């Protein structure tokens, strides 16, 4: 493998919560490869709640999640002795559900999709109903809203700046907004010119696309999270599921990085940007490893059966539309230029 592995020494976390390995893949392209990124905010949110007294022993933790934040909470709640209920939907894979159950979490699968907001809205409705029933004996981490989510990534930002300096270009997938926004806010305290590129998928409302079915999980949203601070983003790229899955294979084949599809989506964007701007140092966030996806993203037959097989070579560059709402697969770039989402949506398309 042509990558150079480096790690910044640090203390205060057990080995299970270790910061990522930084891999140098090309002259100015680095990957921040986490084993399990969502452990970082899960642990931080719970610790802060305990310190403030908003979470006390005997209370039950409730959250809505279909991915690894649920698993992060399950690990932390198991360590701390809290009961955990996760409200999810049928998209959660059986392997993750089994892991949650083995850690003592109760998994509630919501099967009715709301007309507006999809499963994310119906999951929230179910969680709120449960909170009303439990009263003051429960705690909701609120990963999409709490400022503790982005604040958890200060230690990651310090790792990057300690190794590469703060004046970098950060590339990462956008779901709750915690990792990209929290990291860039910290970096810009030292280097205001540090750049942020958000990676989303088509049919996600975060950056102005109409809501719809999404096969690329782990990024995108049917609701706009409060932790997504749109004015922090310089560029936004939209990536289709087939292209992200193909890029995930390329990441594995070229650099022996066994990662999930959100890493593949960010990798293809970061690689393109690094080649276009060779004087910039580009750091791509890779949130997790590929074990959950071995029988899906890494399975040719699964890709074929689910209409997610990318034919041919990967595109060399994205297309560019005048407005995110008109962007089409497989790959689109929009110069966001640190504007608010409201400014984008309220502007005429030929002036955006």
SS element count, helices? 11
Envelope shape: globular
Helix-strand category: alpha/beta
- Percent of residues in helices comes to 25-40%
Strand-and-helix sequence, N→C?
Answer: EEEHEHEHEHEHHEHEEHHEHEEH
Mean pLDDT: 91
**For the largest beta sheet, what order do the strands appear in spatially?**
1-2-3-11-8-9-10-13-12
Kindly report how far apart the N and C termini lie: 42 Å
Number of strands: 13
Largest sheet: 9 strands, mixed
Strand content: 15-25%
Radius of gyration: 19 Å
Low-confidence stretches: 1-16
Question: Which key phrases capture this entry?
Answer:
four-stranded parallel beta sheet; alpha/beta; disordered N terminus; nine-stranded mixed beta sheet; 352 residues; 11 helices
Please characterize this protein's 3D structure.
The chain is α/β, with parallel strands linked by helices and 352 residues long. 35% of the residues lie in helices and 17% in strands. The strands form 2 sheets. The chain has a 9-stranded mixed sheet. Strands 6-5-4-7 form a 4-stranded parallel sheet, sandwiched between helices. Helix 6 packs across helix 7. The longest helix has 17 residues. The N terminus is likely disordered.
């Amino acid at each position: 493998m042509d990558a150079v592995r480096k790690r910044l020494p640090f203390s205060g976390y057990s080995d299970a919560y270790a910061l990522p390995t930084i891999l140098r893949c090309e002259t100015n392209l680095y990957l921040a490869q986490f084993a399990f990124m969502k452990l970082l905010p899960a642990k931080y949110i719970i610790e802060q709640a305990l310190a403030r007294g908003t979470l006390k022993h005997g209370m039950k933790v409730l959250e809505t999640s279909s991915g690894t934040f649920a698993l992060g909470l399950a690990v932390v709640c198991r360590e701390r002795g809290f009961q955990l209920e996760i409200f999810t939907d049928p998209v959660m894979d059986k392997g993750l559900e089994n892991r949650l159950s083995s850690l003592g979490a109760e998994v509630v699968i919501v099967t009715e999709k709301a007309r507006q907001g999809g499963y994310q809205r119906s999951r929230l409705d179910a969680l709120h109903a449960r909170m009303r029933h439990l009263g003051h004996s429960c705690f909701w981490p609120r990963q999409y809203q709490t400022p503790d989510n982005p604040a958890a990534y200060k230690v990651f930002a310090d790792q990057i700046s300690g190794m590469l300096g703060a004046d970098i270009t950060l590339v990462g997938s956008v779901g709750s907004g915690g990792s990209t926004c929290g990291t860039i806010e910290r970096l810009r305290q030292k280097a205001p010119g540090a750049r942020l590129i958000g990676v989303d998928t088509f049919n996600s409302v975060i950056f102005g696309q109409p809501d719809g079915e999404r096969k690329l999980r782990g990024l995108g949203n049917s609701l706009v999270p409060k932790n997504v601070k749109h004015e922090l983003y310089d560029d936004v790229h939209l990536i289709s599921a087939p292209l992200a899955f193909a890029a995930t294979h390329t990441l594995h084949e070229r650099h022996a990085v066994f990662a999930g599809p959100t890493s593949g989506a960010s990798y293809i964007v970061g690689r393109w940007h690094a080649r276009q701007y060779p004087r910039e140092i580009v750091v791509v966030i890779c949130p997790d490893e590929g074990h959950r996806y071995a029988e899906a993203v890494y399975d040719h037959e699964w890709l074929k059966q689910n209409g997610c097989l990318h034919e041919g070579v990967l595109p060399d560059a994205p297309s560019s539309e005048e407005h995110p709402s008109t962007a089409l697969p497989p790959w689109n770039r929009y110069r966001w230029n640190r504007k608010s989402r409201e400014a984008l949506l309220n502007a005429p398309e030929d002036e955006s």
